[in-house]
Design goal:
The chain is an alpha/beta fold and about 230 residues long. It has ten helices and five strands, in the order βαβααβααβαβαααα. It has a five-stranded parallel beta sheet with strand order 2-1-3-4-5, sandwiched between helices. Helix 1 packs across helix 9 (about 185-200) and helix 5 (about 95-110) runs parallel beside helix 6. The longest helix is centred in the C-terminal third of the chain and has 23 residues, at about 210-230. The protein is globular and about 50 Å long. The mean pLDDT is about 95.
């Protein structure tokens, strides 16, 4: 992707493909989600000839993504597709093998069009407010994303591994990142954007002054929990 900085003879497109974790909606309260943070950072650092297209639709599973893959991804001839999917598959109890096969098919078809695939895990839901057993099920789907990234040699951005220690160690503070039990708020989206930018070797985000202090405080707490896990 960084090589596009010198290739200004044509436009380059990045597709963000997923469900409500990706989609821009009125529930954001006028704040950016992680896709919008990425778009601003890419266009500022690489150039205005690059754009990020948000193709997230809330409530969808890998089955739905397969059904609209041609229309919403391949037809745009992207250079990169970032896939973040699995929460609804877990909630709807789609068989894990079927989820894995769908995800493999999505990745393979995108690659056939000479586009790079980036798989992304979710943040961590607030399990203590969900039904018993949801954590075990959800984590199986996130582990499947990791397995497929290794199997297919696809780039992985493992958001879950950064968010989960914070939730486990400080659930009350972690709630400041969440809009509800399964969705991050504007601060959670900002931190996802920071992690994704780092993974894609982009510069740090320019934080808005009105939320800078709180965002930095929460990110410091997250990093501290991750360090504590490493020391244990």
């Amino acid at each position: 992707m960084l090589q596009w900085k010198e290739d200004r003879s044509r436009s380059h497109r990045i597709i963000a493909f997923g469900s409500s974790n990706t989609e821009s909606t009125w529930s954001s309260g006028g704040r950016h989600n992680w896709v919008e943070w990425l778009n601003i950072n890419v266009r500022d650092h690489i150039g205005r000839h690059v754009c990020v297209i948000n193709q997230g639709i809330g409530g969808e599973t890998t089955e739905d993504l397969l059904g609209r893959l041609e229309r919403d991804v391949l037809s745009f001839k992207p250079g990169v597709a970032i896939i973040t999917i699995g929460g609804n598959d877990a909630i709807q109890s789609l068989p894990l093998e079927r989820y894995a096969d769908n995800l493999r098919t999505i990745c393979a078809r995108i690659r056939q069009e000479n586009a790079e695939v980036v798989l992304q895990t979710y943040y961590c839901p607030m399990y203590h407010l969900r039904e018993v057993g949801f954590r075990t099920e959800f984590e199986r789907y996130m582990e499947t994303v990791r397995i497929i990234s290794r199997e297919m040699e696809v780039h992985l951005v493992d958001q879950y591994s950064r968010f989960e220690p914070f939730y486990r160690r400080q659930p009350e503070q972690y709630a400041r990142l969440m809009r509800d039990t399964i969705h991050v708020n504007h601060l959670g989206n900002l931190i996802m954007g920071i992690h994704l930018s780092q993974a894609l070797q982009l510069p740090d985000l320019q934080l808005p002054p009105d939320i800078m202090q709180e965002a930095l405080e929460l990110r410091e707490l997250m990093d501290r929990c991750l360090d504590q896990d490493s020391e244990d």
